[in-house]
Amino acid sequence: MITVIPDISAVYQMVNFLVLLFLLNLVLYKPIRNVILERKAKVGTLNSGVEKASADLEKQKGDYKEGLKQARGEGLKQKEVFIEEASAQEKEIITRINQKAQANFAQIKAQVAEETEQARKALEAEVEVYAKAIGEKILGRAC
Known about the structure:
- Helix content is 92%, strand content 0%.
- The protein contains 1 helix and no strands.
- The longest helix has 132 residues, at 8-139.
- The protein starts with 7 loop residues before the first helix and ends with a helix.
């Protein structure tokens, strides 16, 4: 069996170890822990910012879709109004054209009736002359 005789060097080693542990903690471990904690806090802040931005983006997407839906609805309503107005204008124009055509038709009908009457009067005046000429030819003598 091995026997270890305690001497003063073991105490020096323990003191040296504790001093080294204290110095390493002071110089190395605490700054590293502080940096890690700061990074954790910064990452947490950034994550909350990302989550907030993501929520805002989703809200804006919803608002955009809703606005687009409303705009389409309003556009369709305006389209229907424009179609109704155009239909009313079309009916009005067709009515005016029909009235104008009927007026022209009546005018042409009156003109044809007048020309027919003038032709009849002209033919009536010539009927007697033609009747005499036919009578002379048939009877073969002058009346």
